[in-house]
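Researcher: Next entry in the queue.
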Amino acid sequence: MIDDKIRLTAAHANVDLSAGLPAAGRGNGMNGPVPTGPTRSTQESGPRTAATSSVLYEKQQHVAWVTINRRDALNAIDLATAERLTHIWRQVGADEGVHTVVLIGAGPEAFSIGFDRRTPARLIGPKACGLHKRLVVAVNGTVCREGFQFLRDADLVVCADNATFFEPRWGDTADPGPGAERERVRGMRSAATRRDPVTASEAYSLGLVQEVVSLRRLRSATEQVVERMLTPPG
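Model: Structure for this entry, 234 residues:
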């Protein structure tokens, strides 16, 4: 059953949910702050984007935090958002000071529900834009359709316990590489055969995600993952 609020929001965002979409992001006992992206660092460099931008960019030391910022539209990707993401991936790729990228969606309701009706199909993942730096994806709420492009490109996916995964579309049917990517694509293919949405715990079992944490801890857990990545072994 599609939650009425999500159905109306998706319709307003010109997203076709005729295949159905699970409710997400409410009634999870969330008492802490909503993870909507990073706070501004005094060491930030790069463009300063207004809070109304569809994609927020923050650079904190060697980490670029990218937030899909269309919460009222369940972080659906319209043309402006797709172009902004493409620009950011290329900019980060050219910045030798960025070693790791974190991608998150604004608000607890959805990470991203994919393209809206007016956006032509295109590849929006970092790798398709030539970015091959470490990518950590933090999933909150619903991810479906083309939002899976980001998961496919990720080195590691952390998800909140309110996350749901639905109707995978990742735009690339080529055989995946070794390791976590191969396992994740297998999980996507398994999810594609499911009629019901995949829960966070099921996503972990399928290899779609590597860590499941409470929604309140999503930001801090992601920061810890990044810190481990940046810490030299030994």
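Model: Confidence is low (pLDDT under 50) at residues 18-49.
Researcher: Noted, moving on.
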